[in-house]
Amino acid sequence: MLIGIDGNEANLSTRVGVGQYAFNILSELYLLDKTNQYIIYLKDNPLDDLPKPRQNWQYKIFGPSKFWTRLALPFKLFIQKEKLNLFYSPGHYLPILCPFSMVCTIHDIGYLQFKEQFTNKDFYQLVNWTKDSLKKSVHITTVSEFSKTEIINTYSINPSKISVVPNGVGEPPKISPKQSENTLNKFSIKRPYFLYLGTLKPNKNIPFLINAFSKIKNYNLVIAGKKGWLYDEIFKLVTNLKLQDKVIFTGFVNDFDRWALYKNAQSTVLPSTYEGFGIPALESMKAGTPVIVSDIPPFVEVVGKAGIYIDPHSTKTLVSALNSVIDPKTRQNLINLGLVQSANFTWTNSAVSLLKVFQRFE
Question: How many Cα atoms occupy the beta-carbon half-sphere of 168 within 13 Å?
């Protein structure tokens, strides 16, 4: 087979969400598949950590960058001499026109519930471009059974047209005590601490977390992740509750520091009101750190019986969970369960599942 892939989401220096998925899927396909031929389409030169070109793995770099997906990419696909068996996008957006069969990954459709969190332009693009991709795809993949059900119910799509290709998790790096201290010192973090890791945006429910944390003594709270949107309330609340000395904002963290923060936390706390999957929960369990998560379907899929579930609208349940995970026996039991649960999710398994989808169109 000759498979084309939009590699731009993977070709970002700071990867979160779709970017993480795209990078890891491409990396695993490269390791797994030396039989099929791949062309990776980019608007910028590939970063150093992307797979290196070889006989069955080539890059096409072209512009213009503006309107690349809607104009430059379709034009390239029509004029190139290579005839693809399949074109794949690891994100929501497919080229507006394409002479080949197409597959895309729709990670979630949470934007339909949170219109107020987007600019009119971004919301229009998400709604209409995603709908267009669903219509043009010969097959669709998504990351969880929850997202599959939402897509089916919202767009009346035949379930046989959608496959679940879950996110995975890599092996954490070996982190020495000295390296841990270096990371904590970099951000002026003192143990013990609870950790939130993810983008700062409304569905992550961070003000709810801060309110519950304010009732816990002798602990710090680390909020790690880049600013998304509508995050001003988070910083105002910390000031109003006089928690400036106990709540540490790190901003975006690199891969090594992310694993070090997981490893040294008392627990990772993810009180989201909506998720499509929940990669930080998976990573935390893999790092040997218990998770406290909202009782919502995607977390139930990922965490199973290995975490403490809370009502994301009840401060009382989160305070109780924070106190529970302080108990050494409870914490160790959750660590053991989390290591077993996280072993079910690997990027190799994800890539194998995606390859099975590709092979339908040989």
Answer: 21
